[in-house]
Each structure stands twice: as structure tokens, then as C-alpha cells.
Amino acid sequence: MPKGSPELTQARHDEIVNACAKLYETMGFKEITIKEIANFTSFTRPSIYNYFQTKEEIFLALFKQEYEMWTKEIDELEPSGAGDARLEFSSQIAHTLERRERLLKLLSTNMNEMELNSRPENLVAFKTAYGASVDAVGNCLQRFCPDMPEQDREDFVFSFFPLVYGIYPYAVVSDEQKEAMEKAGVHFRYMSIYEIACLGARKLLGV
Prior knowledge:
This protein is mainly α.
């Protein structure tokens, strides 16, 4: 890590991650290189290696950032007290995912590759952010459904997260993919991110 103020170091770190996020809007994980990322920053490619050793570490930092933003949003959810609390929870948690398309896209990539090509300290930081999101969903469910047994809440959380991992490929489908499925005779029902997440949560909660 280069010498300098913590503020400058964090600013450089954030600039790199934000450049990666910008590229990821129109490019895939495999297409993006450190050279491409450097072109969207104010410093050179060699300078990036002062902060990240691999492209995967940059993506893992972006992943961590996305989890932190999602966790913050979940922590702010509160029940209205009107209507079925489980239905309301399902709808609200689905809306948070609807606003986190980048997180869902990252979840649909090769996470294993990112983790294997990152230093242990970066992997721990990422897992900490992921763990906070798991806790946030469980705590949110407790706020909405305080009478739900702890085991039922835990069962929901550890069933809901695998479902979340698969949302993006089903909700974000290109015209070419749709046409291919039609030609292959595959029955497909288009659903939005919100619809898939809400339906999944409701099924898991039995409502």
C-alpha cells in the first residue's frame, strides 16, 4: 500500500472500484481488464497494483460495497402495522433487491474465481459484508414478524439467499436469449426482479 493519508488512500481505492462499476454497466466480468479500469481513473495502470493485486480483488471490493449498501437499506425497513406482516415483508425486501441490480448481476458471475484470486484480508472483508447482510435480513424479518420462531427465521434466511443468487439470469434476459428459447420450445414466463424476489419470499413464508 502506498504511503499517504488514509483519506487519499481511500479516495484512490474508491475511484478504482467506481471505475470498475461504471464499466460493469455495459461489459461483462471477463471482458473487463485492469487496463480498461485504469482508463476510467486519474492515474496509471501500474498505480492500481498499489491498491489491488488482481482484477478479481477489484470486483470483490465492488461486491463488498454492494452488500453494504443493501444491508443499509434493509436495516431501514420497518413494518407499517397494517395488513399481513409477511406479505409486507416480502414486498419490501423484494423492492430492496429491485434497486440492487448490480449486486444481483455480481451474484450471477463466477464468485469462486473472485474469491480464489483475492488476498485473505480482502476475502475476510467481503465475507464480513456478506454476513452483515444475512444478519440484516434475519433481523428485518424479526421486526416484521416478532412472533415467528427463531428456527423458522433462520430457515427462511438460508433458503432465501440461494434464491437471490439466481434472480438476475431469470429477470434480465436479452432479446437473443428470448428468441433462442422460443425456437427451442422452452416455456418461459418473464418476471421482473421484484416479482421473482417477492414471490420467492412469499412461498418461503407460506403466504
